Amino acid sequence: MIALGSDHGGYELKQEIISHLESKGIAYRDYGSFSPEPADYPEYAHIVAHAVVNGECEKGILICGTGIGISIAANKVKGIRAAVCTDCFTAEATRLHNDANILALGGRVVGPGLALKIVDTFLNTPFSGEERHSRRISKIEAV
Ligand code: RB5
What we know:
Elements: E1 2-6, H1 8-23, E2 28-30, H2 41-53, E3 59-64, H3 68-74, E4 82-84, H4 88-98, E5 102-106, H5 112-124, H6 131-141
Parallel strand pairs: 1-2, 1-3, 3-5, 4-5
Helix pairs in contact: 1-5, 2-3, 4-5
D-ribose binds next to helix 3.
């Protein structure tokens, strides 16, 4: 189950991602926002982050205008590793190395074509499981 959330800056791209996930038969839960009206990104970041740490959803995708505000807010929730990605290389690397559990996208930064490739890369890349990466992740969590 993939948790989705956005503010107004990411609303349109969230709708594209929903169509994409549906076309691939990937289950998702949309935590809003539910219209393109102005909305405060921390609210959606926190709802999605809690859905991921509580185990309701395996991973999350958050979208605001830049991906930055919404990822900063999500990363305040213990256990969340949210990564802003603007290309497939970083989407792959953040799964392999950081075991990122939330992908953050900028609806005003990446076009829908690239965004959907980034989503596929993020969802299809497993954590490497290598000891050095696990050790570094546990040091992040130890704060
Ligand atoms: C909203 O205008 C914009 O600030 C927000 O979507 C996001 O880009 C914040 O980081």
